[in-house]
Amino acid sequence: MEDPTSEDEGMSYDDASVLSVAVEDSPRARARQLQLRQNYRKLIDETQLNKEELVKPDSNGLMENIAKAHQLFKEVNETRGAALDSKFMTLAVTLGAQKTNLLQTDLVAFQPDEFIAKLVTCMGGTVSEEKDEIDIPENGWNVLGQKTATYFTSLTPALHPLLGAFEAIESGKTNRQATQRNKEKETAAKVQLPKELTNYKDDKKEATPEEIERVLHIINTFYKDDPSPIDYFELVVNPESYGHTIENIFHLAFLVKDGLVKIFLNENGLPVVEPVNIRSDDISPRKKGKKAKKANNQVIVSLSMDEWYSIIDAYQLKGKQPYIPSPGN
User: Fold this and answer.
1) pLDDT in tens, 146-165
2) I need a surface site. Which of 18, 77, 137, 162 has the fewest CB within 10 A?
3) How far is 177 from 170, CA to CA, in rounded Å?
4) Which of 133, 44, 46, 25 is nearest to 87 (CA)?
C-alpha cells in the first residue's frame, strides 16, 4: 500500500530537523508524562483512603487535594493524563456532595405540627395547645375543597366508543386480517432465492505472525512500564503513514480475536486497549489464544483518510514517534 505521507518526497531539510528533534525529545516527554500519571494515581489513592476525614464539615483537605490536581493538570498534554484528572474530579465531586449533605442548615425542614395548624386555620377551625385538641367545623373540609378546587381544573373525559359499534369493529378486523394474509402470499411469491455458488475459492490470508507478535510485545512493554489502559488511537495511529495505521488496526484485531488483548470504553467514552494476561514472549499468540480465548463482541472498524487526519489533529500526534514503529525502523 502506498504511503500518502511518505517523507521521501516533498519534505524540506527544516521539516526533517523538526521531526528529528521531536523524536529525540519523545523519551524524556514520555518519562515526564509517566511521572505525572503516577502523581495522579497517588493523589487519587490518598483521597480514597482519607475520604471519611475529607467529608467532615470542618476539614479543608478536599480543597487542598483539588488545588494539587489543578497544579498537575497544567502539565497534562496527553489523553491518558486527562483521563486520570477526570477520574479524580469525579471522586472530588462525589465527596463534595457527601460533605454538603452533612451540613446542618435546617433551612427547609418540614414541621408537621406547624403544617397541621395552618391547615386547620384554613378550614376555619382552632387548635388548643393547652388541651392538645383540634376543633374543625362541619363544613371545614368543604371549605378546604372549594379553595383547592381551583388548582384541579381538568375534567374527567366522558366514555364514548372510538371506532363505532362492536359489530363494525369485528368485521373490519376480519377484513384487515384477510388482506394481510393476501399480501404475505404475494410477497412470498415474489421472493427470489440467490443463485448457489458452485465454485468457491477461499483466498483469505492471515496477517504475518511475526508482526502480530511484535504488536503484542509492544503492548505488553508499555503496560509493564505503566499498568493502565492504553488509548486505542494513540496506539494504532502512525502520523506519518496511513497504510501502516490500517495494518496496526488489522494486527490488533487478531490479538483481540485470540483473547490476548481487550478493547473497551473508559469513563470518558474513549476506546482503550489492555492486555488480558502478560505471558512470556516465547509462546506464539496463536498458542496463547487457545488458552485465553473467550467469547468476544466483534465490530467492524473503518478509518478513512480524512478521519485519520482528524485523529492526528485531535490527539496532536504530528511529529511524534508512533507507539508501533513501522517494520524495519
Assistant:
1) 888 877 766 665 666 666 55
2) 162
3) 11
4) 44
Reading the block at residue 123, the C-alpha cell is 378550614
Answer yes or no: are the C-beta atoms of 90 and 82 closer than 8 Å.
no
Pick from 16-20, 48-52, 152-156, 297-301: least confident: 16-20
Pair 274, 230: CB distance under 8 Å: yes
Main-chain phi, psi angles of 319, to 5 degrees: 85, -5
Q: How far is CA 55 from the centre of its chain?
A: 28
**216-233 pLDDT tens trace:** 888 888 888 888 888 888
Residue 135, beta-bridge partner list:
126
Q: Between β-strands 261-265 and 230-231, what pairing exists: parallel, antiparallel or unpaired?
A: unpaired
Question: Beta 261-265 vs 126-128: how paired, if at all?
Answer: unpaired
Which helix or strand (DSSP H or E) is residue 206 part of? none
Give me 203's grid cell: 483466498
Q: Which of 254, 327, 264, 329 is nearest to 284 (CA)?
A: 254
Starting at the earlier edge strand, list the strands of the sheet with 230-231.
Answer: 230-231, 271-275, 261-265
Read off the amino acid at residue 185.
K
CA distance 2 to 49: 54
Kindly state the cell numbers that stand for 92: 472530588
Contact 40, 46 (CB under 8 A): no
Distances from the Cα of 248 to the Cα of 104, 182, 186, 223, 255, angstroms: 57, 54, 50, 17, 11
Helix %, strand %, coil % for the chain, to 5?
A: 55, 5, 40
- Helix-then-strand count for the chain, H and E: 12, 5
